[in-house]
Amino acid sequence: MREEVFEYKDGDVICEGYIVYDDKSANKRPGVLVVHEWMGLGDYEKRRARQLAELGYVALAADIYGKGVRAKTQEEAAALATKYRADRAMLRSRAKAALEALKNHPLVDRTKVAAIGYCFGGGTVLELARSGAELNGVVSFHGNLDAQKPEEAKNIRCKVLVCHGADDPMVPKEHVLAFQDEMRNAGVDWQMILYGGAVHSFTNPAVGNDPSKGVAYNERADRRSWEAMKAFFAEIFA
To answer: Which contiguous run of DSSP H or E holds residue 197?
Structure first.
């Protein structure tokens, strides 16, 4: 596997992503964008990119915040995430820049591209879809579901998979129901899988295993959601 820092730009802003792919073959293959949690691009997203590369994809872990901008505390993470979620145009612009950088990689088949995201990143890939970006599918893992303009779902041109903790206290139930109505009203090809007993951040072992805190790793939900993603990819990249 080749793993390297991958710089690209959104306008004048330099972003420092991380790309992973098998360099034994020069054949083009599908590309998958990975969007980070609210702390910014880190080891967790790089590990997911490696897993995707092992499945045969070119995986780019995106950098939404920009080069050198990484949260050191939960408070900094909250401020950064709020900044971008309050300005959806800027959030979409950063995601689109990463998507285009991935598509331009010489080993990526531009006709077969997906985006996945975790927590903040899950909400980001949904915004990417709402923007009308050209890609085959998006997968949100325990992501934010709210839309500032639900009618923009009519712009979605790809399939959507949402993997969500059934007991996630960080995403209000009203947002879950509103998201379902948003997808339904726009005629989107969408799926939502709810994992019983899972709360927020259920795919990340680093958050611990105490569901009473509202964030906790759930091995079963992590495993099942990854398998659901693989099946989704098999369909959209067929």
So the answer is: none
